[in-house]
């Protein structure tokens, strides 16, 4: 089973940095592609970044490219999102998600962590 719990959200000033973590208490973490999504108030949830099961391939939304870095530690079942040069438009609830080996969609989601960037 996949059980995802995010942490690390908070309030930060524009231009600052924050690192989000996502812990999977299940046993299949290293087999799953992982991703971060976010949802701002009144907007649809949007893709932020993804990483392959082995960590060798990453993808980013254009809006965060060059500012955010996704990484993972398969030995400890941890997913990370390092966010630098934060902007007010990065304010959202951030979710981590997992996609199983044979799945075409991200089927497992955490409860989310709030990131608020003050201008």
Features:
mainly beta; 4-stranded antiparallel sheet; single chain; 119 residues; 7-stranded mixed sheet; 0% helix; globular
Number of helices: 0
Q: Profile the largest sheet.
A: 7 strands, mixed
- Average pLDDT level: 96
Strand-and-helix sequence, N→C?
Answer: EEEEEEEEEEE
- Integer-rounded radius of gyration: 13 Å
Q: State the secondary-structure class.
A: mainly beta
Q: Spans of 5+ residues with little confidence (pLDDT < 50)?
A: none
Number of strands: 11
The 3D shape can be described as globular
Q: Terminal Cα separation, in Å?
A: 40 Å
| Estimated helix fraction | under 10%
| Share of residues in strands | over 45%
3D architecture notes:
The protein is mainly β and 119 residues long. The chain is 0% helix and 50% strand. It contains no helices and 11 strands. The strands form 2 sheets. Strands 2, 4, 5, 6, 9, 10 and 11 form a 7-stranded mixed beta sheet that branches. It is globular. It starts with a strand and ends with a strand. The relative contact order is 0.31.
């Amino acid at each position: 089973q996949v059980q995802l719990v995010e942490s690390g959200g908070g309030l930060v000033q524009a231009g600052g940095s924050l690192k989000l973590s996502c812990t999977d208490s299940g046993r299949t973490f290293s087999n799953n592609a992982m991703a971060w999504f976010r949802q701002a108030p009144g907007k649809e949830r949007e893709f932020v970044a993804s990483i392959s099961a082995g960590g060798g391939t990453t993808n980013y939304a254009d809006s965060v490219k060059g500012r955010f870095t996704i990484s993972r530690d398969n030995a400890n079942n941890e997913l990370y999102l390092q966010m630098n040069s934060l902007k007010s438009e990065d304010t959202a609830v951030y979710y981590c998600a997992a996609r199983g080996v044979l799945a075409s969609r991200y089927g497992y989601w955490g409860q989310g962590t709030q990131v608020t960037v003050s201008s």
